[in-house]
Inverse folding.
């Protein structure tokens, strides 16, 4: 490509990056603004006196640390459980030929389309009957179920990409089926598992509807999205508190993303290439 | 399609085999053992609730039945008749479809354009844009919603200052509120499209593009006649995913328009069902709305499956 064009492309890429990152910048900035500066008629894009007041308010006013751990626990359990279950299922549908295999695959695809939000009502009654209302289990169980179809569908490509000759070789060397599964296949498919876990982590970490519907009376079981909205009173929001809580809530996801960033790009490429 | 999955070994697996290869025994049962955890979880927490949803949608199911101990009574299609007779339902349905369509088109346009842009720039600008997009992607929906509200806040937001709009309220008008939510939705969902399409473009062999360029094809022509057909499977995947995600937007609408906007002007089906069920305790009616959503998305899925089949893809 000619020089001026590439220069223009790079300039616009940087400009767009600035626009895309601006909301996040403003969030962190507002979180560190001293009291009074947020509620100013002439917002400046910087602050001269950063303060931790908003963060202190967030962590002091309610059991924010506890909600944070609750969220982390729910997301962690869902990520690990759904990754393991999906890995087994993906192996079954790619490494074996059996009756109803295609039917199952189509069912996984259809299951992926089910609007989970529409199931809030029956799940509410199911959780009530299981005695899980107001517990973290009421968030963990449905989220495992809803992460599975997409995870299985995505992992399929990764499992398929492992040559069958490798499997034969492992057996010839005397490996048992489970040894092949966990010591050969699992490490090879791991990048794919990371890419899929991004989706299950995010959907669980972000979950607002289930938390709002299932954790009705026991606030000690609350998760971050609910805690955040305590500061957000639509008529008179405590913007400093909301932004500080938002910052705290966004950071773990950002860290997670940066950690898996490279695997994510190659993972998505691998998943859609098959 | 990989060749590996079509090898004779894979094909012949269900056939009874001589005992000479003991490691193969039990092969017919093994996939079901591997599948068991997934099937149990999905059966209990997905299939059963779907069945329940359908069932409740035919019942008179309100607060009186849930906690008042009154017997549930079968209403037949009563809930559906009530729903379809309500002009508000049709208004919400239309708004949902149009809003989702606008979100999908904008997300795909922005995502694809930026994916192409990524291939045109050197490593540093690419990394910067990629990181910014990952940041937007990583932002939880609740957080994103509140941040965008602050950005467009009539009193303290920077956007109104920069645009000189005074204390114009974005959430007051129906269309400007939808537009604001749309901006947030596009902001947090274009990165998935961008990253996926970019990964797809990178997988296209460079020779193909060079050959097209040598033949004198313009950039637009290369995109339309070379890249788009090669990327079609990926484009189908991201389109279908976007349709599904945007059709069932809940958090953004709920938080940004405070539960559906003034007098419910910004309701979409998902929020509407939630309000009916949990705010006014009409669980039967809420379930009927859920069934309608389910059927619409099922239709999208079937269309997707037909597309896959026409492309000759093996499942």
């Amino acid at each position: 490509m000619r020089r001026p064009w590439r220069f223009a492309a790079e300039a616009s890429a940087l400009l767009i990056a600035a626009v895309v990152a601006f909301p996040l910048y403003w969030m962190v900035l507002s979180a560190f603004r001293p009291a009074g500066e947020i509620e100013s008629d002439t917002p400046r894009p910087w602050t001269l006196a950063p303060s931790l007041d908003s963060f202190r308010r967030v962590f002091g006013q309610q059991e924010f640390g506890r909600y944070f751990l609750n969220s982390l626990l729910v997301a962690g359990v869902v990520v690990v459980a759904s990754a393991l279950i999906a890995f087994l299922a993906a192996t079954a549908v790619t490494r074996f030929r059996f009756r109803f295999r295609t039917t199952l695959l189509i069912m996984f695809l259809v299951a992926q389309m089910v609007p989970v939000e529409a199931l809030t009502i029956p799940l509410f009654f199911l959780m009530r009957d299981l005695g899980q209302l107001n517990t973290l289990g009421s968030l963990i169980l449905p989220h495992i179920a809803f992460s599975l179809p997409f995870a299985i569908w995505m992992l399929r490509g990764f499992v398929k990409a492992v040559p069958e000759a490798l499997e034969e070789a492992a057996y010839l060397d005397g490996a048992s089926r489970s040894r092949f599964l966990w010591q050969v296949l699992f490490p090879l498919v791991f990048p794919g598992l990371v890419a899929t876990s991004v989706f299950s982590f995010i959907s669980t970490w972000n979950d607002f509807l289930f938390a709002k519907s299932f954790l009705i009376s026991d606030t000690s079981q609350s998760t971050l999205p609910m805690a955040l909205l305590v500061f957000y009173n639509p008529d008179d929001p405590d913007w400093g508190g909301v932004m500080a809580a938002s910052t705290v809530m966004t950071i773990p996801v950002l860290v997670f993303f940066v950690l898996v960033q490279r695997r994510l790009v190659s993972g998505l490429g691998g998943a859609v290439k098959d | 399609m990989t060749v590996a999955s079509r090898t004779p070994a894979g094909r012949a697996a269900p056939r009874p085999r001589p005992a000479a290869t003991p490691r193969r025994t039990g092969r017919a049962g093994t996939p079901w053992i591997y599948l068991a955890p997934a099937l149990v979880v999905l059966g209990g927490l997905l299939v059963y609730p779907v069945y329940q949803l359908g069932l409740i949608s035919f019942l008179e199911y309100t607060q009186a039945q849930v906690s008042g101990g009154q017997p549930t009574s079968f209403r037949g299609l009563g809930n559906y008749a009530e729903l379809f007779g309500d002009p508000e339902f049709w208004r919400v349905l239309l708004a949902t479809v149009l809003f989702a369509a606008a979100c999908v088109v904008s997300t795909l346009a922005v995502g694809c354009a930026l994916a192409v842009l990524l291939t045109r720039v050197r490593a540093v600008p690419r990394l910067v844009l990629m990181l910014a997009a990952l940041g937007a992607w990583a932002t939880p929906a609740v957080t994103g919603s509140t941040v965008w509200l602050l950005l467009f806040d009539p009193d303290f937001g920077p956007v109104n200052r920069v645009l000189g709009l005074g204390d114009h309220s974005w959430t007051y008008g129906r269309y400007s509120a939808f537009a604001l939510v749309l901006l947030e939705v596009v902001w947090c969902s274009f990165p998935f499209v961008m990253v996926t399409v970019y990964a797809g473009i990178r997988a296209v062999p460079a020779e193909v593009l060079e050959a097209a360029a040598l033949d004198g094809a313009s950039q637009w022509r290369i995109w339309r006649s070379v890249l788009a057909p090669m990327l079609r499977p990926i484009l189908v995947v991201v389109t279908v995913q976007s349709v599904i995600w945007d059709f069932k937007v809940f958090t953004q609408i709920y938080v940004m328009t405070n539960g559906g906007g003034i007098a419910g002007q910004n309701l979409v089906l998902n929020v509407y069902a939630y309000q009916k069920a949990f705010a006014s305790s009409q669980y039967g009616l809420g379930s009927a709305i859920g069934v309608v959503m389910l059927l619409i998305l099922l239709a999208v899925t079937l269309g997707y499956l037909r597309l896959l089949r026409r492309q000759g893809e093996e499942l």
Notes: Chain A touches chain B through 111 residues (CB under 8 Å).
